[in-house]
Write a structure and sequence with these properties.
heterodimer; A: alpha+beta; Ubiquitin Conjugating Enzyme; 4 strands; globular; B: about 1350 residues; mainly alpha; three-stranded antiparallel sheet; extended; ubl conjugation pathway (chain A)
């Protein structure tokens, strides 16, 4: 039984309201255009004291029509070298996984998506994930291997890519 | 503000907010609709956060609340519910029938069909009946009787066959699976029949290139040498007539001149001189400097010049000529060596650590230095590439010799610093250029060559030739004017590859294809990088779902459909047909034929041969007779009767006969496979590898052979080995447990083939114990590395399958035999000898264990647990024993790594009597044995002196020491590791032990220096004897303490009479022994307490109050509790307790429910009841598997209780048991019987249903004696007894209560459901109580 469309709409509108009222530090998020609440663009600044510092990462959030029952998907448009982000920019984080589609049980059910989560929480989680990668479920193997074996080189690569992405 | 936790909206009058769970704060409230959506979506009925179950209240509309539920509506609902479920139930029923009934029968039928086919059975009655019942019934049986026989005989047979052959097939598949990923197989193939032809060609080319290169290098060396020599000759002029200029001038003219001169000179020589010159020139050019002085000066100078001349002449010719064809011919040995070098060089990097399979085939052929690697993605760090570069560097060393890399560098130097080199002459110039060109030629392709070689030798089946061809084409296209030298280099390989074009190459893998496409079309790559980034965002489109045709055909689709059942049935049957044909029918026919042909051949030569032999061995010693008879009956008789049956064509259905013929058949197949493989191997060599069809045939045969080998080895190691150990241990246990020494069998007794299983378990159990003893000694007592020859059981490097195929069968087999021998000797000395001699020769009857009922053996589990408690004291005891024995035998340094000065030699006494009253000698003043007399005369006050002997040896200091390294150890050295004698040459049997160059996973190459006393081996044997003695003392100690502690406690507490133990103190029984061991294990702890107390008392006198009986008892109690907790916390116990206990309950219930099905005697009287129970049981069984959660298990328990009650009712009201009419002889006979089997047989003989008897007997044996009076109550005995009726009534009432209560519950639920379906109603969430008015922020 698909939920009423208005639920998702209502909820997204509420969240937009909340997020504009109490913006999060270093994160900007809003719908791509006023007519379509289901596609958001957000900008996450690289967390301080990490190699991602000074980076500005643009991402797209796509909400399904049965939001908040199903999780949105998130994809970075800015190239970012990170163990938990696929090379095409897709983000691999437990909060964006609906419970039950993880056969290996890497993540406990509490960390998964549920209607209690919100856009704000997703963005905060992604921001903290950028600062602190989770090597247990790597999406970018090269990055994960480098992160584990050679931190210096990893930092260097990341910094280089950050500077490149700023097109300075 | 209150908002819904899902939609974030507020509550409205028509959509109020509820708080149905215990959550507080911003997530407290929720809309009912939102919650409903979420619950439907997540398929849950609890809160995610607090796990509270959401409660809904059903509210009926006003008009329906007054209505009554009519009977008609109920019936309607019942029918619709039934229609809803019947489909499912039918499917389950069908599935159950199929799995439990149809498949076993068909498997058994297939088996007996093959029996008929092989001629073991002949058709008697109808074909179907003969096959189904294996000729065991007569024609005049009714259908129900046939059904009964079917479920009694045929189904168990089918299940047994399915299990046995299933296990074999599973093992074979697993082995195959393991073998498929094993790099060793490729090594075997390469070694036996040569490399794969195209790879071999590549490698051969590489070797030829290498040879060319070596020649070039030699040329360059010679060139420099010659040039140097020329300059030297410029400076000095020889005294002899030959001008140095002439010699040095390296043109043809001068050579001819010199030749002439030389010929003249040589003609003048005496034959003697000539011979000398010749020998020096040809054989020992290095002796030139040592030309003996008896040769005159003239001759001497002549020889020098002649040799120099000849030498230079040859070298010059060598320089000028192109490499001769012969020098480029590769011999087999060279090629083998080359392969070995390559595998040595690559195995380290390319294969990774030996036991880790290569993580992934390399993403693409290596971007060798020759052609530019394509790097478009800068952030991808290719680890493989680095590995590969490494490997290539190594390979370069192999291909070019170790100096090659230096050569390149040198050459660079040469280019820059040419001036420092000796001045070049004009006439040398052309040579130099030529040389340069040659060397250039060689430099570039070598890296490419290396890459190629690496690929060909180790890589997966990547079609390198194709890749190279493509790369070449691409290069040619991309770079229109490449350096000519470069182009020339590519040619040989391209040509070589083109030769191979006709060889079929494996298809490309997707990523490889991608890679090659990129090479061919570089734009592809340039266009490609990060295509998806920066694209305008789009809605995420779900991948198109595959459209499933949901046709209303419930029987054909869905889970557990008829289609599935039918497919599975057909599949299982055809697989059985095939497997049985392959593993049973074919080997049987072959074996039969082999025996027949052998026998006829033998019979032709010895026509008087007879197969009828009787055992005529008779001796006065009974055990020996029994033993010979056992061997005769079980082995020789079987063999003889098999042969005579085969030759007379009177094959019997005897299991051992069938198996032996089958084994023989398999042996025949194995032998012929071996012959074919040998033939193919003889036909091929490294230079002429097998190709085409015969190659694939060989590979298939090799796969078969490997599987067979691994299977045989594993069977021997895991089945036969424990079995033999079990037989031996059983033999040792006979005098311990059995009253009758000569007629013994292990409980529980299983039928036929399966009767070996308990023995096997016993053997495995024993081996486990022995292994844990060894590992205890290894880890706690001995120096690491002493037991290097026994691999630690927890070694991660063990690769059973790999080792099995890589080492020769004989070697592995002899190892297994050796360890079997060790085990056998150990069991013989430690157990069999002791137990039998105690039983036979002990003056008092200590053994056997006192036992008064069969199932007392369960108590031995308790004994084993108590033995586990003994671990700590045992450790201490054995440590003490080892230290003592070692110091006595002067082995402390070798075994324990404790270097004691006094062990390094012996003490020599002044006189015999001085031995008794002398102090210890001065160890710092060692005296040689020959000097002792002088010593005593010079030191009159010394009565003894220290004479060092023995020596130090190198010994491994780690259990993971490499095998080959161990062979270089155990040589005598000084304390500071200087060799005392020349190391003896190692026997060169590496080829025999390790024919395929397998890498030893054990790579520790360190050693330590330990002292080894003289007469080392006798000392070791003495040590074993001491250990044996110690174990005997230990056992005796336990026996004594059993008498002192356990028996006394039992006597005092009068537990003795409860367990009806004998009053003799010396008799062993399990209860007192367990108690004694439990108490003994605490002894260590007690001593510890007392010691601590003593210390405390010494420190402060007030603390003496610390010790009190209460405290000791309390801490002992705590210790015992800890020990028990520890025991139950071990991994195995945890698994058993946490998981298995749950499953165990199910198994027991299933067993109880199945019992009437598989124990025909219990259900014989009422067949319809039996049939209904079969169905009932299967339904409950399957439903319990389908819904394996706690709830359904509960239901299942009810069902089982019902089954049992039903069974009891059947038994009770069945007419059969009429004990009043029993003959007294029968009752008398019955009293003598012990086992259930015997009772059944006897009662069947007397046509009596045996149930009550069995229950009585089981009750009698199962319960300890003090509970036996209770049996009377539980016993159903004679059904006239009041107790039985009471019992049945109680049980029935209990069961009825459960049944009625659950039925009522079910009914009320059903009524509720009907109401909900037919009446208007709505569900309303129920709020949790007591938090309506708090938090409203």
């Amino acid at each position: 039984m698909p939920p009423k469309f208005s639920t998702a709409h209502k909820r997204l509108l509420r969240e937009l309201k909340e997020i504009t009222k109490n913006p999060i530090d270093g994160i900007i998020a809003s719908p791509l255009n006023d007519n379509d609440l289901f596609h958001w663009r957000c900008i996450i600044t690289g967390p301080n004291d990490t190699p991602y510092e000074f980076g500005i990462f643009e991402a797209i959030l796509n909400f399904p029509s049965d939001y908040p029952l199903s999780p949105p998907t998130m994809k970075f448009l800015t190239p970012i070298f990170h163990p938990n982000i696929y090379k095409d920019g897709k983000v691999c984080i437990s909060i964006l996984h609906s419970p039950g589609n993880d056969p290996l049980n890497y993540e406990s059910a509490d960390e998964r998506w549920g209607p209690l989560q919100s856009i704000e929480k997703i963005l905060l989680s992604v921001s903290s994930m950028i600062a602190d990668p989770n090597p247990n479920s790597p999406a970018n193997i090269d990055a994960a291997v480098l992160w584990r074996n050679n931190k210096d080189k990893y930092n260097e690569t990341v910094k280089k890519l950050v500077i490149d992405s700023l097109s300075l | 503000m209150k908002t819904c936790r899902i939609c974030r909206g507020e509550g409205t009058p028509d959509q109020p907010l509820f708080h149905p769970c215990k959550c507080r704060g911003s997530i407290k409230y929720i809309h009912q609709d939102c919650l409903q959506f979420w619950l439907d979506h997540s398929k849950k009925d609890t809160c995610d956060i607090c796990n509270t179950k959401f409660n809904f209240k059903v509210i009926y509309s006003d008009d329906s609340i007054s209505k009554k539920l009519s009977f008609w509506l109920l019936l309607k609902n019942l029918f619709s519910q039934f229609m809803h479920w019947q489909n499912y139930l039918t499917k389950i029923l069908l599935f159950g029938l199929c799995v439990g009934f149809y498949l076993p029968i068909s498997i058994a039928a297939i088996d007996s069909f093959y029996d008929f086919l092989a001629g073991i059975q002949k058709f008697k009655s109808g074909v179907l009946d003969s096959i189904l019942f294996n000729n065991k019934i007569s024609d005049d049986l009714s259908f129900s009787e046939k059904l009964f026989i079917l479920q009694r005989d045929t189904i168990p047979k089918g299940i047994t066959i399915a299990i046995i052959y299933g296990a074999i097939v599973l093992a074979i598949i697993l082995i195959q699976n393991n073998l498929a990923g094993d790099p060793g197989v490729q090594k075997i193939i390469n070694k036996r029949i040569g490399l794969e032809p195209n790879r071999q060609k590549l490698l051969l080319n590489a070797l030829i290139e290498k040879k060319k290169h070596l020649i070039l290098r030699r040329k360059s060396d010679i060139f420099y040498q010659l040039r140097l020599e020329n300059e030297l000759y410029d400076k000095s002029v020889e005294e002899d007539g030959l001008s140095a200029q002439k010699v040095a001038k390296l043109d043809l003219q001068s050579i001819l001149e010199l030749q002439k001169l030389l010929v003249e000179r040589i003609n003048k020589l005496t034959p003697n001189q000539y011979e000398k010159l010749k020998s020096i020139c040809t054989e020992h050019p290095e002796t030139l400097n040592e030309i003996p002085y008896d040769v005159s000066k003239h001759e001497r100078s002549f020889i020098v010049i002649g040799v120099a001349y000849l030498d230079r002449k040859f070298r010059l010719e060598f320089m000028c000529k192109p490499p001769a064809e012969e020098s480029l011919i590769v011999t087999e040995e060279e090629f083998k060596q080359f392969l070995k070098d390559i595998s040595d060089a690559t195995s380290h990097t390319a294969n990774g650590p030996p036991n880790v399979p290569e993580p992934e085939p390399a993403p693409a052929p290596p971007p060798a230095r020759g052609f530019n690697p394509i790097h478009n993605n800068p952030d991808v760090i290719d680890v493989d590439e680095q590995l590969r570069d490494d490997a290539i560097d190594r390979l370069l060393n192999v291909i070019n010799g170790p100096r090659f890399l230096d050569n390149i560098n040198e050459q660079d130097d040469r280019d820059e610093g040419e001036d420092q080199r000796p001045h070049l002459r004009a006439e040398d110039q052309p040579n130099w250029d030529q040389f340069r060109a040659d060397v250039d030629n060689i430099n570039d392709p070598t890296s490419r060559l290396a890459a190629q070689v690496l690929e060909a030798a180790t890589g997966p089946a990547i079609p390198f030739a194709e890749a190279m061809a493509m790369a070449n084409e691409d290069e040619a296209a991309a770079a229109p004017a490449p350096a000519p030298a470069h182009n020339a280099n590519v040619d040989p390989f391209a040509n070589a590859n083109r030769v191979d074009d006709n060889i079929e190459l494996p298809p490309l893998r997707p990523h490889e294809r991608e890679f090659f496409r990129n090479i061919v079309n570089p734009e592809n790559v340039r266009r490609q990088p990060r295509p998806q980034f920066r694209q305008p965002p789009q809605a995420v489109q779900d991948p198109p779902m595959p459209i499933i045709d949901e046709e209303p055909e419930p029987f054909w689709n869905g889970p557990l459909s008829i289609k599935l059942i039918l497919t599975a049935t057909v599949l299982v049957k055809s697989v059985t047909l095939f497997v049985l044909f392959l593993l049973k029918c074919l080997p049987y026919a072959l074996g039969k034929q082999t025996i027949y042909s052998f026998y006829t051949t033998l019979h032709y030569f010895f026509p008087n041969m007879s197969l009828n032999h009787q055992n005529t061995f008779q001796s006065n010693y009974k055990p020996l007779n029994l033993f010979v008879d056992f061997i005769w009956r079980n082995i020789i008789d079987t063999v003889l009767s098999t042969i005579s049956n085969v030759t007379n064509k009177t094959l019997s259905d005897n299991l051992s006969e069938k198996i032996s013929i089958q084994l023989l058949g398999i042996g025949t197949v194995a032998f012929s496979v071996y012959c074919i493989m040998k033939y193919l191997e003889l036909k091929s060599s490294q230079l002429k590898p097998l190709s085409g069809n015969s190659r694939s045939l060989y590979i298939i045969l090799l796969q078969m052979k490997n599987t067979f080998k691994v299977f045989t080895l594993m069977f021997i190691e895991w089945c036969l080995f424990p079995l033999i150990c079990g037989i031996l241990v059983e033999f040792a246990l006979v005098p311990i447990f059995n009253e009758d020494l000569y007629n013994y069998h292990l409980e529980p007794r299983l039928f036929g083939f399966l009767s070996v299983i308990p023995t096997w378990f016993l053997g495995t159990f024993f081996m486990y114990f022995f292994a844990s003893y060894v590992s205890m000694i290894r880890s706690k007592i001995l120096r690491t590395g002493v037991l290097f020859f026994i691999r630690p059981s927890d070694d991660p490097n063990i690769q059973l399958v790999h080792d099995a195929i890589m080492r020769p069968f004989g070697l592995r087999f002899s190892r297994i035999l050796l360890s079997l021998g060790v085990y056998a000797i150990y069991i013989l000395c430690e157990f069999i000898l002791v137990s039998w001699s105690i039983r036979l020769f002990s003056p008092i009857a200590i053994l056997p264990f006192h036992s008064n009922f069969n199932y007392e053996k369960l108590a031995y589990v308790g004994l084993i647990i108590c033995a586990d408690f003994m671990k700590k004291p045992l450790n201490i005891y054995w440590k003490y024993i080892f230290v003592k024995c070692c110091s006595l035998l002067r082995l402390s340094s070798f075994l324990l790594n404790e270097d004691h000065a006094n062990e390094r030699g012996k003490i020599v006494y002044k006189s015999f009597f001085a031995r008794f009253n002398s102090k210890s000698p001065n160890y710092n003043n060692p005296v040689a044995y020959s000097e002792t007399k002088e010593y005593f005369s010079s030191h009159p006050d010394e009565t003894c002196c220290f004479v060092p002997d023995g020596n130090y040896v190198r010994a491994p200091d780690d259990d993971h020491v490499a095998r080959n390294f161990v062979r270089t150890l155990f040589v005598a050295v000084t304390k500071s590791d200087r060799l005392l004698e020349e190391t003896p040459a190692l026997p060169d049997d590496e080829e025999k032990i390790n024919p395929y160059g397998d890498i030893d996973p054990f790579d520790v190459n360190t050693y330590t220096i330990v002292y080894r006393p003289p007469q080392f081996k006798p000392r070791l044997f003495l040590l074993f004897a001491c250990l044996w003695l110690a174990s005997m003392v230990f056992t005796f100690g336990i026996y004594l303490s059993n008498i002192i502690i356990g028996k006394t406690i039992f006597k005092i507490t009068t537990l003795e009479s409860v367990f009806s133990l004998p009053s003799e103190y010396y008799k062993i029984d399990v209860y007192t022994l367990s108690l004694t061991m439990l108490l003994l294990s605490q002894l260590n702890f007690l001593i510890d307490i007392v010691q601590r107390q003593m210390q405390a008392t010494n420190d402060s006198p007030e603390a003496s109050k610390l010790i009190s009986m209460k405290k000791i008892v309390r801490s002992m109690y705590l210790n015992i509790r800890n020990t028990i907790t520890e025991f139950f916390n071990t991994f195995a116990m945890r698994v058993i307790v946490r998981h298995a206990a749950y499953n165990f309950t199910i198994i027991i219930y299933i067993g109880l429910a199945i019992q009437p099905v598989f124990n025909p005697h219990l259900i014989e009287p009422i067949r319809i009841g039996a049939l209904s129970m079969i169905i009932f049981t299967f339904v409950s069984l399957i439903s319990s598997f389908l819904f394996s959660n706690a709830k359904s298990i509960k239901i299942f328990r009810y069902i089982t209780v019902f089954t049992i009650v039903l069974r009891l009712i059947f038994i009770t009201f069945s007419p059969a048991p009429q004990f009043t009419n029993l003959k007294p002889e029968f009752i008398e006979e019955l009293q003598k019987l012990n086992t259930v089997e015997e009772i059944i047989n006897l009662s069947l003989k007397n046509k009596i249903t045996p149930d009550p008897l069995i229950i009585q007997s089981v009750g009698n044996t199962l319960l300890p004696p003090f509970l036996r009076p209770a049996i009377k109550f539980f016993m159903l005995g004679e059904f006239t007894g009041v107790e039985a009726w009471i019992y049945i009534t109680v049980w029935f009432i209990a069961a009825a209560f459960i049944a009625v209560s659950s039925a009522i519950k079910l009914w009320s639920k059903f009524v509720e459901l009907t109401k909900q379906i037919y009446f208007d109603n709505m569900k309303v969430l129920v709020n949790t109580e007591g938090n309506d008015d708090d938090d409203d922020e």
